[in-house]
Amino acid sequence: MQTHLSRIDITKILFLDIETVPQYASFEELPEEERELWEHKSKRLQTDASMLRQAQQPSSATEELYKKAGIFAEFGKIICISVAFVVQKNDDLQVRIRSFAGHDEKQLLEDFMALVRNYFNSEKTYFCAHNGIEFDFPYLARRALINGIALPKSLDARGKKPWESPYIDTLDLWRFGDYKNYTSLKLLTYIFAIPTPKDDIDGSKVCDVYWSENDLQRIVTYCQKDVIAILQLFRKYRCEELIPEDAITIVI
Fold this sequence. Notes:
This protein is α/β, with parallel strands linked by helices. The chain is built from 9 helices and 6 strands, in the order E-H-H-H-E-E-H-E-H-E-H-H-H-H-E.
């Protein structure tokens, strides 16, 4: 994404954040063939020695590892996509927040893709997320294809050159070419003094909140908070004032 940030029309950007979980509530529920495939895929996670030391039995380690299956598009599913987009009313900017959430992943993806096709499907459209290049964007694309859903042209970056990419990544922009470290959205909102509501949940708890507590709305609230933070961080990157809270509306 080579276009200078200052030249991008913010009303042409769809800010987004996704929440994902494993496809099954526990490792024991996986079909036998999928168990074998997961064990092969999860070998990279087994290097987390601290996790394995905490597990008193091998079965406990396997269960703990499976809670991380949601980070893989092949073994996880999307349960929430929250988006934010900016509209201009006279000289004022207003933000609309909308979430696509539910247990039916195909339906929420179809609803999200319909929004993209209707309003964000031109060559001047951009999509913005935090760590989106490595996670949100490919995850969305992969899960859409797995569910038999065609990607809108604007969202499909396959075969595009870097300067043609529609993706804006607030993590990538913060790196300034330094790829040694990961900087969390939480840390960036703190150092840029971006106000965020006090929540009792973070990304590591989403799996348990969904599968154990069955509290999808709690996850939606968390996801909406993050997408607002991403939009405000983008404003800070352009040395612009934050959009006031009373200009932000959640659309049902």
